[in-house]
Amino acid sequence: MTTTDTSTPPVVRGWPAVAAVAAATFSVVTTEMLPVGLLTSLAAELGASEGAAGLTMTVPGLIAAFAAPLLTVAAGRLDRRWVLVALMALLASANLLSAMTPNLPLLVALRVLVGVSIGGVWAIAAGLAVRLVPERSVGAATSLIFSGIAVASVLGVPAGTFIGELGGWRASFAVMGVVSLVVAVALAALLPPLPAEKPMRFSVVPQLLRSGAVRVGLFVILLLVSGHFAAYTYVRPVLEQVSAVDAGLISALLLAYGLAGVAGNFAGGAASARDPRRTLLLISAVLAAAVFALGLPLGVAGATAALLVWGVAYGGVSVSTQNWLLAAAPHAREAASSLFVAVFNIAIALGALLGGRMVDAVSPPSAFFLATALALAALLVTAAGRTAR
């Protein structure tokens, strides 16, 4: 295992800098998810099937999984402030060019650039709080940075869909291009110089994986995130077919789910900053119970309650697993964060794939029972595995 590099002291610029980093995570997640509400109009205008247009969602996630460790290595000793600014400028360019693209292949190619931005931003941003605020505030700052995920789901994607309904899908990409550019300027103005703590080499990855606590953290991410997306991808048909929830109520319920996720993000961040193991044990148990319940005919009230509990529990997954990895590898924060991003994005793709196979082979509720089994497996791995201190 590599030794801690103490040559670079912590750099503190405070909460405005943390807010700028949170805006960056919001921007990359919103951009990644933007096609969700625009897929039909996008496919129609570009003369493609909705299945083919779905590549605009698949490609960025897969590229991000590989880009995170590669960019962390490529960044070497570069100042992380300017790396983040460059990545946000790349995101802005990809969005603005996407608004003008004449065909689907070019749009998918531009989404490759989005994937590069996602992987790079998350690999750097996920472990940055410790360098921006005093030690006593690191937990809250990490939660704020990770709130970009939940806020993008609650506000970013619906806002992008609304703009698309008013001005077309191209307008949504153009607006996100402008937002990304503004965030790049904010990062340049608000972040302090962030020299590399220790340049990452590929040899660091097998060294990290020799740590039992790191392996446990990555395995728990794979189980919880795969389980979540196996179920969440098919939440609408389950709510409608199993619990007889009216289609007109689904959007409101998903908004409530997103708001619960924001609350869960901050609660999970505060708890995991003190004790990541106990927090992940609780999250895994609650997720298993909530997702299992949603596979049963609960009725509208029961389904609403289970969905809100699911939102709170899953809202804490990202920040809690990241806190686990930072505790497991404090000497290699960027390397651990790059592994976090890689496994997280692979888990998203794997979860949606497994859920789809279960739905096609058995029924929509079976995807929820699969998610329950994966959450319980995460509970057992956390309980039995080596603890991050």
TrEMBL record:
Organism of this sequence: Saccharopolyspora shandongensis
Claim: Zinc is one of the keywords in the record: no
TM spans (from-to): 51-75, 82-100, 106-130, 142-163, 169-191, 212-235, 247-268, 280-301, 307-327, 339-359, 365-385
Location relative to the cell: Cell membrane
GO cellular component: plasma membrane
Gene Ontology molecular functions: transmembrane transporter activity
Protein name: Predicted arabinose efflux permease, MFS family
Membrane disposition: Multi-pass membrane protein
InterPro entries: MFS, MFS_dom, MFS_Efflux_Transporters, MFS_trans_sf
